[in-house]
Design goal:
Shape: elongated
GO molecular function, one term: calcium-activated cation channel activity
Number of strands: 0
Number of helices: 4
GO cellular component, one term: plasma membrane
InterPro entries: Csc1-like
Distance between the termini: 45 Å
Protein name: Carbohydrate ABC transporter permease
Mean pLDDT: 84
Helix content: 55-70%
Keywords: Membrane, Transmembrane, Transmembrane helix
Largest sheet: none
Length: 79
């Protein structure tokens, strides 16, 4: 079971530790945007390439032993 606690009162906070300038917030925001963009590019491009290589037509070209299985009509319908 999780233990819940009330938030501290405003006078218990050290407000000087919470200050962050507008410029610092904007820089952090754009750094995060850039990191997200890099993650998308480095994950989606390889996934797209792998997806293109694994289509049934390309699999038959790359792996000739798959041809008998690919020629079964019910197998083709499922993909």
């Amino acid at each position: 079971m999780k233990h819940l606690a009330y938030a501290p009162e405003p006078r218990q906070l050290i407000w000087s530790n919470l200050s962050l300038t507008f410029y610092a917030r904007e820089v952090r925001k754009y750094v995060v945007y850039f990191i997200v963009l890099l993650v998308i590019l480095f994950f989606m491009i390889p996934i797209g390439i792998i997806f293109e290589l694994t289509t049934l037509k390309n699999l038959v070209k790359l792996l000739p032993f798959v041809k008998p299985v690919a020629s079964i009509s019910s197998f083709r319908v499922t993909f």
